[in-house]
Each structure stands twice: as C-alpha cells, then as structure tokens.
Amino acid sequence: MKQTHYFLAVPIADEIKRKIANWCEKITPRFPFRTWVHSDDYHLTLAFLGAVSAKQLQEVKGKMRAICNNYPPFSLTLKGIGTFGTPSSPRILWQGIEREETLWSLRHDVYEACRTLGFSLDDRPFAPHITLARKWKEEKPFRLADLPAAVEGHVSVREIVLYQTHLDRIPKYEAIASFSLREEKKLISGGTNRGAVD
Questions:
Q1: Per-residue confidence (pLDDT) for residue 4, from 0 to 100
Q2: 4, 86, 118, 130: which has the highest count of C-beta atoms within 10 A?
Q3: Cβ atoms of residues 91 and 63 within 8 Å
Q4: Residue 52: strand pairing partners
Q5: For residue range 36-49, what is the model confidence (pLDDT) as tens digits?
Q6: pLDDT at 195 over 50
Q7: What integer pLDDT is reported at residue 2 of this predicted model?
Q8: Residue 43 a catalytic site member
Q9: Which pLDDT score is estimated for 144?
Q10: Is 5 a catalytic residue?
C-alpha cells in the first residue's frame, strides 16, 4: 500500500473554483504546464503534515477544534497571479491572496499546535496561494506578463479541513474532517432572548 499524506487547509467555495477553472481553461492552450490542478483540488494550505499515525490524527482533530473555536468566520480577497521557481520556467503557477491578518494568526496557531504534536513542518515564510498548475514544459520562456488579468473574488473562511492525499486519483485530495470557525450569535432587532440565532 502506498503511504498517504495529510494536510490542513482552507477549502475554496464552488463558485470561486468555477471562476478560477474557467480562467485556467482559457489559457491552457497558450501556457503549457505539465499538469493543471483539478478544480476540486483547489485549496489554501495551512500546514502540510506528511504521514500521520491514527493517534496523531485524533490529536490533530482535537487541536483544530480548539483553535477554530477562537476564530469567527472571515473573508479573503483573491489578488494576482504568481509563480514559484525560476521565473522563465516555473515549477508552480498560483492564484494569490491579499494579506489578511486573521489568516496569518490562524495559520500561526495551527502551525504551533502541530509542532507540539511532533510534526516537522516547513520553515519557509507563509505565502498563501491556490496552486493552479505545475512544471512549465516548453523551451520558450514563460512570461508572467503575458497572462490575462487574474480572477477577482472573495474566499469565505468558515472552516479548516483535514485532507488526505491519494496520488493515484484525480481529484486527489479527500476531506477527512472539517472544523468550523466560531459562529457569532446575532440579535434580532426588538427581540428578547428568543432573538438569538445560533
């Protein structure tokens, strides 16, 4: 049996997935990357855990429930397209996210919790993104400036999801568990205690 890996991420709503997928479909013929990510696999990684034991899975779930209870839902704004690797022959093409302090704080708490459970995590600075394609395969240089305007929109962050990777499938990421952010109670104007909505 192949070893499977796990990671924690913010899921992307179907509406935004469709917008990004449509953008990718339009540029695919002119921008030959080796692989394009299936739209069902779009996500925003918070922590890559690697191989995880059954005991660690339960510990991760407990930590994530506690962390998510400290954060109300919030929104992220899509911003720009970028690459990782050599600019003329990138290994990753990605959709960017505008900086939002709540996301940085949430990711910090997730990272620290996972480290206390013994996970060895990437030490590179947090660069939130949605991976769109991998490995430029042409000899001619890739030019970021040649891409059309990036998709605009907002990502509503209401939960963190624990994903399992299946390298022999497309789409290859399976949601194993989800952890909802804290819902704020709202009062209906002019109401009594019955006006509180969960």
A1: 86
A2: 130
A3: no
A4: none
A5: 999 999 999 999 99
A6: no
A7: 64
A8: yes
A9: 96
A10: no
Cβ neighbours, 10 Å, residue 8: 25
Which structure tokens are listed for 106? 């949430």
What would the pLDDT profile of 116-147 be if each residue is shown by its tens digit? 999 999 999 999 999 999 999 999 999 999 99
Question: For strand 6-11 and strand 43-50, is the pairing parallel, antiparallel, or unpaired?
Answer: antiparallel
pLDDT of residue 184: 63
pTM value > 0.90 = no
The answer to whether 8 touches 110, Cβ cutoff 8 Å, is yes
The one catalytic residue in 5, 43, 108, 154 is 43
Closest CA to 50 of 130, 119, 139, 145: 119
Looking up tokens 């510990």 gives 59
Contacts of 28 (CB under 8 A, 6+ apart): 36
3-state secondary structure the chain: CCCCCEEEEEECCHHHHHHHHHHHHHHCCCCCEEEECCHHHCEEEEEEEECCCHHHHHHHHHHHHHHHCCCCCEEEEEEEEEEEEECCEEEEEEEEECCCHHHHHHHHHHHHHHHHCCCCCCCCCCCCEEEEEEEECCCCCCCHHHCCCCCCCEEEECEEEEEEECCCCCCCEEEEEEEECCCCCEECCCCCHHHEEC
